[in-house]
Amino acid sequence: MKVAVLMGGWSAEREVSLTSGRGIAEACRSLGHDVTEIDMGRNLGAQLAGAAPDVVFNALHGVPGEDGTVQGVMDLLGLAYTHSGLTTSAIAIDKELTKKMLVPAGIPMPQGRLVASETLFEADPLPRPYVLKPVNEGSSVGVAIVTDESNYGQPIRRDVPGPWDEFATLLAEPFIAGKELTVAVLGDEALAVTELVPESGFYDYAAKYTDGLTRHICPAALPAEVEAACLAHALAAHRLLGCRGTSRSDFRWDPAQGLAGLYLLEVNTQPGMTPLSLVPEQARHRGISYDQLVQRLIDLAIADHRQRKGSPA
Questions:
Q1: Active site residue 248
Q2: Burial status of residue 285 (CB atoms within 10 A of its CB: 0-12, 13-18, 19 or more)
Q3: Which of 178, 185, 209, 300 could form a disulfide with 254 if both were Cys (CB 3.0 to 4.6 A apart)?
């Protein structure tokens, strides 16, 4: 097949996307596909039309590759592409919209509130400790944990760098002590639960993508009921949001509270495919090689495209 691997772009996650894309392109070539690598520009429609692919492997991360914008362009061009479509992408990248979809269905998520960044210089929006994060960024971009011991001040000061410098609106959520957990869904199956143990600090952007800064425990050593709940919530979120191909759900679990201490934080519709990424790691745990994972996602994209067009599979 002619496969266009779409990567790069201009989001805060550009470098991770390029790493994912190069790995995917290498796998596609080893599988015998004719590969075109596309570093997304503002002329995306022309780039895709020029490549004339049978399928686009979307390896973009962040906005606009993960928020429905690029998906809309590919829909207009009538292209088959991996991962979720326009509506799902637009909802899942917005943490507040995701809550409105998932919480009524019984999936536990932290109660939070949207706050204007300007108000943070007057008073804390929640009792400390709490977390501030952009509403529509992934990979822990712009996340700040505000504690009594932090150097942000009481209240946060204008002269201290933080996400309040970059985003007019932030989501404030209570900080959940305990373990960082994640579950990948492939097709319609939750693969495993991984515990992420940062060597220092918390699981931020650097910890995710710098070798040696985070230890992955796969499968995580958890009580059976917590493991089962993680798998069930991840699969339910994948289905409720209408995710396609693969997704990754991130959780926090406070062991002191038992099952009641488990919360889903967000659903990532464009999980990384780098050597440190969690979806390939969980796939390996299930006996699926990187090349097989890439082919599986291509096959799912082709089948979904045919179904949406009403063609026989």
A1: yes
A2: middle
A3: 178
